[in-house]
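Input:
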Amino acid sequence: MDDTNKLQALRAVLDTYRDVPGSLITVLQKAQGIYGYLPQDVLETVAAELDIPSARVFGVATFYTQFRFQPVGKYFIELCKGTACHVNGADTIARTITETLGIADGETTADGLFSLKCVACLGCCSLSPVMMINGETYGSLTPAKVRDVLAQKRKEAQADA
Amino acid sequence: MILLNGKEFAFVPGQTILELAQANGIEIPTLCHDERIEPYGACGLCVCEVRMGQAPARLMRACATKTADGMVIETQSARVERSRRFVLDMLLSDHTGDCIAPCSLACPGGTDCQKYAALIACGEYRKAAETMKDVIPIPASIGRICPHPCEKKCRRALVEAPVSLAALKAFGADMDLKENPFVPECKPDTGKRVAVIGGGPAGLTAAYHLRRRGHEVHIYDKMPKLGGMLRYGIPEYRLPKAVLDKEIALIGDIGVQMHPNTTLGTDVTLENLREGFDAVVVATGAWISSKMRVQGEDLDGVFGGIDFLRAAALGDPPAIGKTVAVCGGGNTAMDACRTAVRLGAETVYVIYRRTRDEMPAEQLEIEEAIEEGVQFKFLTNPDEICGDDRVSSIRLQCMQLGAPDASGRRRPEPIEGRFETLPVDSVIMAIGQKTDFAGLESLEATNRGTVNADTATFKTNLDGVFAVGDVTNKGADIAIAAIGEARKAADVIDAYLDGVEIAYEKPFVCEKTVTADDLADREKRDRAVMPVLPPEERKHTFAEMALGFDEETAKKEASRCLECGCLDYAQCKLIRYARQYKADPAPYAGEKSARQKDDSHAVILRDGAKCILCGLCVRACDQLEHLSAIGLAGRGFTTEVGAAYRLPLGTSCCNGCGKCVEVCPTGALYKKTEGCKNVAVDRK
Amino acid sequence: MLKIMVGQGSCGVSAGAGKVYDALQSAVEERKIDASLSVTGCIGMCFLEPIVDIYTDDRLTRLVRVQPKDVPAIADYLQTGDDASVASLKIAAQDSAFLEKQTRIALRNCGVIDPESLADAVAHRGYDALRKAVTEMTPEQVIDVIKVSGLAGRGGAGFPTWFKWNAARQSEGSPKYLICNADEGDPGAFMDRAVIEGDPHALIEGMLIGAYAIGADEAIVYVRAEYPLAIKRLEKAIADAKAAGYIGEHIFGTDFSCGFRIKAGAGAFVCGEETALIESLEGQRGMPRLKPPFPAQSGYWHKPSNINNVETFANVAWIINNGGEAFAAMGTDDSKGTKVFALTGKIKRGGLVEIPMGKTLRDVVFDIGGGMRADKAFKGVQLGGPSGGCVPSELIDTVIDYKKLSATGAIMGSGGMVIMDESTCMVRMAKFFLEFTTKESCGKCVACRIGTKRLLEILTRICDGDGREGDIELLEDLCARIKENALCGLGQTAPNPVLTTIRYFRDEYEAHIRDKRCPAGECTALVRFSIDPDKCRGCSLCSRKCPVGAISGDVGKPFTIDGEACIRCGQCAEVCKFGAVRKG
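Output:
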């Protein structure tokens, strides 16, 4: 989608929800669906169109972990930090990802390839420890397996490019 | 009916516990509640123990809990207090700021340097003097002679150089003295009488503050005029006695009665003063020159440092001849050597056993002495004063520096067999002062020969007799230390006269650490240089050497102040409650929030580091001003208050109405003083 | 006709059920096998996913851990009826016991029906109870039946459901709202997700009955955004139910009308707290409100509102169909009916378990769960997630009942049950939960915002080997203060994991603080790696992997680790093929 199409899509969302009280979170979710994240001008548009003070829109957006204010990398890694994963060694997995990619929770690699986000429980506890890359689950992880998966993704990206 | 702290009260339906308590004069602390704004319940400070029926008592938030028939409420139980202290401990563990500026904390008197500097920058000299006189009754004098520990802690030094706080003090006080000077109001007479023995800085200060509290105060002093060491120990060229006279006269103007030429032990005795007065303050100072215990010390032409200065001050200096050796490295030595120069000595030596770096005297004084031709004989120590009846020479042991001693200074050690002899006409021993115990025999002494006084209550072994200043404990110190003690003692004595026993307690304050990096963005502005008489001229006169700042220089210099101290300290509820509940965040020390200062707005100054996230500002902006220029962002420990997108407030839609400032319980929000330096808010 | 059902709960999908389904679909088409292929929800045996159930008439063949490569063999079986080709895939008897020992009410249709088929739900008594309630019963009678059943809130607090319904019914104001809390945030719990993914109509039906009971005009499900599959299936179910007239105006021709919608949460555990949930529903920051007023008086848009969680609602239709007495017949004096647990951690057979109240923890952990993986020593059970606590092995015979579990310092909670063995460090476990609560604290009240942060800092320093004498007492005092002063349930219960681990595993804390030792060997700062010379074969692999060159030796002879240089990354232990690297 180019910028014009995105704005059109956003306008459509705003038209749907403008008169529905309490829709701010839904609108922000849909806006993020369109843009991939929530740029400041999009938040500004939402605030103006819904007639909610910008400070409040920003306050809501920054309260929920779902919302992002920076674009994410090509591969969005969600690492489960649920209890089962913790018990089965999620800390080691986190360390492995950080060591392999040089990024901490919430960061994106300089080449824009990988973003890492630690999340609370993906609900696949029986496969713990678990991570999800672009919605695909990788379970029963070991450091070696993580390194393999990441290397494979990097290769994939090189092939694409 | 409701049982509130054991008493029955009727309540209005819909009334909260907080409202009921307030209506009945019971204070419940709160940091996040304002009656104009809906209850929010963030701080949890207002919790009270509430019991309904048979259920066990629970801690409930008074701001939000509605009263109900049959409620049993305790607003001050141990459980309640413990919970409140916890809240305060937590808040303080995440609170970054300086309640009081480091200069003020460094001042033994606790003078509010930041405030008088700000007032001077604004041209409000009378108010500046009033601020100084909260502590120091004689600021024009002290400003001239104080070694200013304040400046040593001034953070401006991390930028380029400290603010000239002492000189500014002298300037501000001088401006006030010019016409219609500030005279404090005194409380109505209490009928209590206090005798102060000794009219030096300590005695004058104790008298001044006790008189302000409505007591009848008499000062007894053995010298012809009051002022103590300021008059008889500090040379005229540093402190013109006309200035001191004016300031002492003002103390007389508020009703302090002064009795000069009255010697303790002969003219009055401690015993009869105790009988005639409700309290006695001993502030007789340390007036005996210490001896060095070297051979020849008793020869003619050997003088004690303060004896020499006193004689000079009285206009009757001894004959010192053309060549003078002054022994010692402190400020008294500097005063003595420079007085000797002014009395016509052609060669003046300062004998000091260590090097210049270790000298306790002010560097500026040393420099000025050198300019005036004084010769420093470092790493030498008097070994013998030679002469038949009168001094003819002094033999010096040459020294070298060894390992550091307890004070951290390197210990001087004699170099065996190396001596130097200087022909001199006189020797002045400025190596220390001791207490004259005459008339104080009934008081318990320390092993230093000073009066033993409690450091928190200033009490001596005799009931109703208090002691402050150089005469006590560790002995001689700088004037402002004596003033600070006397100021604190006045509170204790005032309470004593009221039948209450209190002790001075160092109040809890928040302090922060600041490094040069934190101030890297500050524009460098040179410290004002005090204009002085040229050396050739001043060598021959006792006229005041410092010429004083002109108004423009003073204002500019005062505006260099970084405003480290909290501008809202006097009205901060957090610090008030912290003290009331004896909060102590130390065991919980941990990470602090990274909230920052925001000075982008024309009238609102925000300091996020002091924000306690009570949310009052956000709610006031929404509910009172209907603007919502600011909001909460993020969540949990890193929540912050600010304009949208974390942009500076100055770029937001904030209209500067100041309602947020009004409701802020701490110094996180401040309404700037328009067109002038920010001045700390007064206590309401 | 053959019926093939592929378990496609999130767990199944994660394990590759989607690919298996696709492969089966191709095979069925290619080989022209006369079989219906459909999807079902999670049966609960997550440890066996992907699971393929094949029904031949009434006979069920359950194949487990199926991979796409197994599909040709399955196709052979489907064509021939000879199960020899799938013998290796058939569920083992002891694994079947996992299900056989359970009593399924809330999960009655999970893994049995196609969650995307209203017809399938209806065939399994879907909406019978709703019809009965609205056509044959008054709202008061419905509340009465629920009262008789003894159903209590399954979200954790265990508050009697009928009482809340009654309060909302009695409350004046209009409109009224019925809200389902499906913001299942407890890390380690997925009961609600499984219900929505496996049997969305059970939730919808339960909610509509509740709406009828309290007189609500609209029912709203507040569901975690992290559950996309649940949202998708629920959306379809709502649309189907609307089309069939179960939702909307004049349901079953009566005067009862009720709207129904989903609201996706956006990631905030605190929104599990009902007033925070309401704030979030209203499009605000999910910060709890002061209580009272309670939602029954003033909730969503300050109107009377009732909030229950998913599992609670999932029981309702069954109770209406079978009577309150039938439900109350199960359980203990204090706790009636069944409870669903998400059994995870160091357990052999992890998954979803529904058992009658009154069973013991031992029944769940050992009989159903099969005990510890790798046969390590059992250490304890963590119940109730960040609000709950750890029950030690010596209390394994504790009866599952609200009061009995509370007495241990833990709570029933929403159903997270994480099993820990000897290699789990309990200080670290407490730290883990505090990491969670500090991240999830909304920041409104001081006690939670700063208090949990300070707890975490102290726990962190203990795990890092910087614990100080007095830290345990400091933790205990802080915990007591936070519990007493925090504004909402999140803060009030946040200290529980700390308090229970101190209560039952104080010696582990002391070992960390005094001896600078982590008995479980989990805290890397306190772990010392060494090589067992008897086991080491001198292969040098560890030495080559060591990032700091701390391991040396001659090939063929035992290697040694330089403790000073070692950074305790643990890679040596990971790569050693002979188990020669010791931790301790």
